[in-house]
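Morning F.,

Quick status update on the modeling queue. The single chain you submitted on Monday has been processed. Sequence for confirmation:
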Amino acid sequence: MISRVTFERTWYNVLPFKFEAGTPNVAGGIGLGAAIDYVQAIGLDAIAAHEHALLDYATRRAEEVPGLRLIGTARNKAGILSFTLEGVHPHEIGTVLDHEGIAIRTGHHCAMPVMDRFGVPATARASFALYNTRDEIDALFAGLAKVQALFRP
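Structure tokens below.
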């Protein structure tokens, strides 16, 4: 961060070094290399197929839930299921699911302009990746049934 320090004065290093304190992130570089090896061993096509299959399964399950509205239904979308649940704020959905050990995101997801445009104040969002399973999707929908039971009028 600095090129020289005395009792009278400090000389800061030139960019970008003055913002890079301490030891370089060696472990991060090694970890990135291992992650690339892992992904290459599985194959991007296999990963994409798995994520697509999970999204298809989750979408079918979502379409069976009364009062659940899917947000974003493009045919070739990533493994993300955004939704609202009639009569329940997404933050409440997230809180109940959290107590069930299910992690989702809630809110405007850095997309406030488009959400304002379509009159959607917030959504709940489940993301699916290589490490997810159908059992976890089943747990998500079991959790959503609990949400509906808690907030049913």
